[in-house]
Amino acid sequence: MSGQAILVAGGYGVVGRRIAADLAPDYPGRVIVAGRNPERATATAAAIGHGVRGRALDVTVPSSIAAALDDVAVVVSCIDQPRRGLLHAAIERGLRYTDITPHLTELGRGAAYEHLDAAASASGARVLLGAGLVPGISNVMVRAVADTLGGADTIETSLLLTAGDVSGPASLDYFLQELTMPFAVYVDGADRPARAFSGPRVVEFPRRSDRGARTCSPSRTKCCIRGRCAPARYSRGWRWTLRG
What we know:
By secondary structure, the protein is of the alpha/beta class. It has seven helices and 14 strands.
């Protein structure tokens, strides 16, 4: 790893643009806004300022990924990757990589993560997957509270979002997909099939009216989640594990 640039994949989207704008003042001249439309990337970079640059990146084309990673040290992915080409390329080059995107379950479980960990260890890469709201920040909060209390018998997490929350078209598209997407929850040592928006219950949020909460896919970052969770840390990231 010889470069110093910070590449924000999907950097002209709703979330990517905010991340790039937050990073730019602290890392002038190092932030790169990347996406399939180089004109949009360049325009967004110019609007942000602080020496931000635009760059073409198509995560479905290996040669485009290779070109985009030139002089890059850190990758922040805000886009969905059908085959995780950007992730694997970053690991191969020993880069720092994080993403906020869903579909963690599509990476597999157990041995799949061990394979990624072994590859990252060999190249010196540092990888943090699923660093959005859920999974991600919520898991870290749960772990911190449990460690402070000396452990916990059960953990229930609920997320309240509003119609005024800002999200891009990709978030809405994935939300609609998840309405019918089956997934597995981990209960008492075994996987059990589940579906989104099942298991309704009432959750009381401070200074808010009672809202219903329903089980949702563990890879989802933009919906109400209900479930007992046990976040499990592997050497370079966090994995979302539901227990009921």
